[in-house]
User: Fold these one by one.
Assistant:
Number 1:
Amino acid sequence: EDKVVQSPLSLVVHEGDTVTLNCSYEVTNFRSLLWYKQEKKAPTFLFMLTSSGIEKKSGRLSSILDKKELFSILNITATQTGDSAIYLCAVEMNYGGSQGNLIFGKGTKLSVKP
Amino acid sequence: SAVISQKPSRDICQRGTSLTIQCQVDSQVTMMFWYRQQPGQSLTLIATANQGSEATYESGFVIDKFPISRPNLTFSTLTVSNLSPEDSSIYLCSVDSWATGELFFGEGSRLTVL
């Protein structure tokens, strides 16, 4: 059964801390891994990862994929209260060489305290 | 958590036709959400489907193009009408946890319009 598992499910930190969110997956036909930030009803796209070992970076956020060990991490440095959100990981499946459907993890709820 | 089943998982349709996507949840929920996921972009909320009342559409989405039904607390359909290639996308059904605000997603329905 294809699945995406995120950990921890929730996390409370203080402003300025660095956090690492984990996403592991078991899928039969992996195409890409996506990270989203969910604050309201429409999650915001953060990163799409397709290749192992290549870090993607956007400001204080970065992410990397390990296709051998089947996981990805999302790092947030110097956290701010505005980083408080649920972070979703999703794996896009490969379907006959083209894009397939998405499997979402349950998300990590991050709370950043002042 | 909620288990969400979507049908069809993928379809290829001709321009000008319509496709109806079904979403079944394993528990009763007040609100169901329909999203569109285009490659590399954020999930875009199309509408919120409330049982017993008309769906609430987000800016840029209209009922004539995306009619929604919500006959009971566990089921909803989204129809994408008068299809054009620009409608090619993944359409996702989602529900939220009233307790935690987490979003739970179906695996999506991948639509390709020729």
Number 2:
Amino acid sequence: DAGVTQSPTHLIKTRGQQVTLRCSPKSGHDTVSWYQQALGQGPQFIFQYYEEEERQRGNFPDRFSGHQFPNYSSELNVNALLLGDSALYLCASSLSGAKLFFGSGTQLSVL
Amino acid sequence: SQQGEEDPQALSIQEGENATMNCSYKTSINNLQWYRQNSGRGLVHLILIRSNEREKHSGRLRVTLDTSKKSSSLLITASRAADTASYFCATAPSGAGSYQLTFGKGTKLSVIP
């Protein structure tokens, strides 16, 4: 049973560029959440998708957007990248419950 | 913003000793969870305690919750080198319509063989 998979593992971009990160949830899970984790900090909630809709959003600017597909997989898009967007981006899936299953993350470096 | 705050920020113990880390939070919660993270990669769920529970056990883990003090503690007994990791508490707020988990900054545990 595959867990949560994220791609790519690492990514290097320059300021002003756009990036798309991808996530496949654990089999049977219908809810996907995205978190940003800066070095030495805890994960911060970006948003959650359920039934292809953004159900809740954290305190992130509109440059951060997402999508959930009918097969429950999800994308995180970040436009106009800033140096401060450099972080580990974590995807987590769940099934109508509180317990989250995390992927290994995408390490984004913005130069 | 960070809701939970773990204490201490870092902890170093010998293998076989017990490790205790604490978490404080600010608002009413539905439940509190603890996660482990190895080497800055994905987090692994350890245990969940609901707001109406005071103590919960899972293997070598013991979690307590004091909602009057808005605090929780995680005890790892008989620690092993493999327990070396960062540990985060995460709170789920009470009330309908709120689905986010809010994480603290974590406690970095080092278990010396």
